[in-house]
Amino acid sequence: MMNSDKRIHVVVRGEDGVILGIAMIMLLLLTLLGILVLSLSATDIQNGAYAKMSTQSFSGAESGLTQARSDMQSFVVAAPQIGQWPAADSTLVTGVMGGLPQKSYNLTVQGQPVKFAFSITDFGTANDRTVLVTSTGTFRNVQQRIEAVLRYEPPSQNGSQECYSSQCASVDQNSGNNVSNRLNSQASL
């Protein structure tokens, strides 16, 4: 009778350290995967920061449009215009801009400096009461630019309002009646 305790050993030569090699390759792959995940996370954080800076700079550009509109309104209301748009659009541009190519302002928004600059240029014919306002907002190193064409609409015969936009009246969605803007010089840009 043979001993059932006999074991068969197969020895393959040259396999010493194979497990160590496989383990090193797996470790390398896991390290590369970890680096990829960290890189993607950093990119998402940078994209989020850029989106926030872009929003802040866009708000600055909107502030430039508002300031330009306010400056135009002040110029039209002041003497010698006394509420009338000048005969030539270039008179308004020169009066508001004071001979400068652009006006710049610095603001502080949530403790952070935001800069905006705007320019006004004649747009269309010389006396069509239409100007182009270009405004650029800057927050840190991110800039946003807005261009808007503003058209002055004088008050109607019943003296309802002055308007610094291309459309000053709207239609009530429920009744279909015309609704006029009750605020003086309200712009819809």
Beta content: 25-35%
| Sheet with most strands | 5 strands, antiparallel
User: Using DSSP, what is the number of strands?
Assistant: 7
In whole angstroms, how far apart are the ends?
A: 103 Å
Number of domains: 1
* Total of helices: 2
Q: Which secondary-structure class do the elements indicate?
A: alpha+beta
Rg measurement, Å: 34 Å
Give start-end ranges of low-pLDDT stretches.
158-162, 164-189
In round numbers, the mean pLDDT is 77
What form results from the Cα inertia axes?
rod-shaped
Strand order of the largest sheet: 1-2-3-4-5
The succession of helices and strands, N to C, reads: HHEEEEEEE
Helix content: 25-40%
What can you tell me about this protein's structure?
With 189 residues, this protein is an alpha+beta fold. It has one domain. The protein contains two helices and seven strands. The chain has helices at 18-77, 89-97, and strands at 103-109, 112-122, 130-139, 142-153, 163-164, 169-171, 178-180. It has a five-stranded antiparallel β-sheet with strand order 1-2-3-4-5. Strand 2 (112-122) and strand 3 (130-139) form a beta hairpin. Helix 1 (18-77) crosses helix 2. It is rod-shaped, with a radius of gyration of 34 Å.
